Predict the 3D structure of the following.
Amino acid sequence: MLDAANQAKLIDLRSVCRSFPKGSGEDLVVLEKVDLTIHAGEIVGMLGRSGSGKSTLLRIIAGLIAPTSGDAECRGETIQGPPNGIAMVFQSFALFPWLTVLQNVELGLEALGIESAERRKRALAAIDLIGLDGFESAYPKELSGGMRQRVGFARALVVHPDLLLMDEPFSALDVLTAETLRTDLVDLWIEGRLPIKSVLMVTHNIEEAVLMCDRVLVLSSNPGRVAAEFKIDLPHPRKRLDPAFRQLVDSLYAHMTRRAEPKAPPAGNIPGIGVGMVLNHVSSNVLSGLIETLAAPPYNGHADLPVLAGQLQLEADEILHLGESLQLLRFAQLSEGDLVLTDAGKRFANLETDARKKLFAEHSLNYVPVMALIKRVLDERPTHAAPAARFRNELEDYMSEEYADETLKTIVSWGRYAELFAYDEQSETFSLENPH
Amino acid sequence: MDFRIIRAPALQRALRPNIWDVVAFVLVIGTMVLLVYGGEQTTLPLSTLDVAPVSLDPGHLPLYALRTTMRMLLAIVCSVVFTFVYSAVAAKSRRAEMVLIPLLDILQSVPILGFLTFTVIFFLNLFPGRVLGAELACVFAIFTSQAWNMTFSMYQSIRNVPKDLEEATQSFHLSGWQRFWRLEVPFAMPGLIWNAMMSMSGGWFFVVASEAITVGNTTVTLPGIGSYVELAIEKRNLPAIAYALLTMLIVIIIYDQCLFRPIVAWADKFRFEQTASGDAPTSWMLDLFRRTRALRALTYPFVALNRAFSNMQIALPASMRFHTKASGPPSRVLDVLWFILIAAGTGYAGWKIYRYLSAHLALSDLYTAVGDGLVTLLRVVVLIALASLIWVPVGVWIGLRPKLAERMQPIAQFLAAFPANLAFPVFVVFIVHYGLDSNIWLSPLMILGTQWYILFNVIAGASAFPTDMREAAGSFHLKGWLWWIKVILPGILPYYITGAITASGGSWNASIVAEVANWGDTHLIAKGLGAYIATATAAGDFPRVVLGIAVMCVMVTLFNRLLWRPLYAFGERRVRLG
């Protein structure tokens, strides 16, 4: 079915690495030896947790950032700056608020120096195609989120790119709007009405990937690598309740949780374990709520992640964060796409507030090394106080500044809930003093 | 809905003129004629100023007002051009930024009126015997009062352009030039216009102060409202001063209605927000021009020209575009060389200043200047405290009543724009008549024009105070002192501090004209740094002018760094609502 021209490689990445300079001197590796090929005529999905470098990879292909090493080619030519024939759709829409819909759509053509009659014709055609007619003279702020993203699509399509890049294009939209937009897009694609050859989309929504893509790449985290590739041959239009669809979703979930399981702690200063563990900020309220939900019927301590995510309206990424936090604190266990409450977790669900705090304190001291470290330092110091900078520096030996911030934020909130230590935001110090 | 019906009138507007065209046409042509007439006057030889001296005939006032306004407009155009160039360079080049931004910070706190001495001589020498030289000196003085905060605002906007929009422009292949005009300038527009408005308000003060200037033996009197008032003071003519005040009032109303409101209303679309919020500002003037047909057709070529201009393919040097291969740290060697260059330049300038001052002045002069500076500092602090005591309660009272606030807010802004120095003579007459102590009674003049910044910022703060918090305070029976200290004062703090910073900066500047006052041949002097600079200027004593300015610069900068900035940071961090 595919002829030779169609099989031509649009994008070819070979052992692409990207690292960012870190405060403590060593570079933080975000992408490690990534190989990726995109052919004409396919929708490719890139699925990964936050920190898997999927957005970085997308920006390397878009020519917005350069790889640290390795080759990135677009149609056989090395990518230096944004290549011709690639257009991008942004998570945040990235529309110019001072331009009307029509002017926003025309912008890309203007930059190409296309004369105004042709520009107008093509812009109106793209607006028509994407279902925006009637809105030409509206400003983005007058539109709903879904309509705005339609402008984002029209703006990208109007330049007739060979490859359309999409950076989590539906994640800023509500569930219903996102679904309409997805199906509209897939319909246009199947009918061959989109003036593009291929699509590469980044997402952390597993169902979205299965719904739209011909091929899904799963990226692992820290550093990002292509961990697995799934081919999806289900015919369009795909039905979410189709058993084959569910099975694919389940296996992707299972795959992603498998990556999240703790490994045997290797020796030495390795990020991801010990003090250098990145803690995602999850409020203790949410954790308590999740434990209660898990303990109650219908789950009774055992939940299938996709089902749980569906009920709580959470993305795969978010539910995995929550599951990992519970797993870290030994309140639950992640395995093969399931979340299972431990005995401690079941106990927690039945306790009163103060007893919960005690249990939480005990578990965070035992299982979160950095919490134990802070407590020990505070106990040892005669003043029972220590600046946050002392711990931040230690964290930054293992992780980027943003992750260190996030981790510190988590520590503060967990420490406050467990009444392990106090934190003064203004002087940025930890102490054992609690106001009485 | 068939979109064609909606689109048609927008794209093929009928060209037949309507009534609005006539009104707008008259306004446009009238403005052009006035500008040309005013412009002709400036190219005359300097001697015409002596032949046709400023007269107190109120019939001349409209023309004087026109000349004054033209100086203002010219200065604001210069400021905008300067802003675009300076902020673009500072934002795009890391090395230039190292020098340009601290420089801007200092320039912001330099007393502009002290500059006049040098600029007048410089420009008179540049165009010997021409009115143009004196005019340019005056325009330059206004420019130096306007440009810095505009530049700062633009620089900060360019640095904070949202990353996704920047990526969008790159991804869609916009050139650096296109990106500047299509992304950075529009994004900076709201901040720039707000700052231009503040600058214009301040500018009236300086244009009036710099029209009649005496430097040593040279006295230049440019026709304008400022020199009219100067002459009225000399002639002890109180009615003439009343005429001048009235004219200024009218001028500022016209400028507000015909220039600034339309611009603010037009620029509303540049506000960077994703959802429409609140009431958009409106302007009858803008609506008038938007309703015209033929006149709009006349603007199409300009729109097209503007488009062509912003689409010009001007490429930036390759180094500023794409960093192939994750760019390593910037060259250390060049950095070191650059630092050495800056250090050498600074050292040389410092040495020159030292040589110049030490040749003419002794250490005791420094003590005098610093002592005078402390006196002025005391005045500023006391006056800000007094003004706060009065205007904070008033502002809160007004701000919590939305209907009243809506009406009072423009009035307070208007009062801030009114050049208070025009009203000085009224106070001086009062002081002279009752034989009051000028050390005390001249002081209020410093804050006469700047206190309104406190008022309108407090009104804005109180209006923005969330209703639910007021209701919460009410339901917990918080009243009296507790209500002021726990509820409203923290709530308006960031706004109040913004107002107080502006007011204190303005007061330092005003001290140069406020600490010395004349009425006919009666001279009133209040001890202070302003009087020090003013006296030295009048005597043509340059070393003392330099010393006075330097001391004021240092004191204002220290005052800002040690008091206002920490306060502002505190307000932003702890009590910013929402």
User: Anything to note?
Assistant: Residues 90 and 97 of chain B are 4 Å apart (CA to CA). Strands of chain B lie at 212-215, 218-221, 516-519, 522-525.
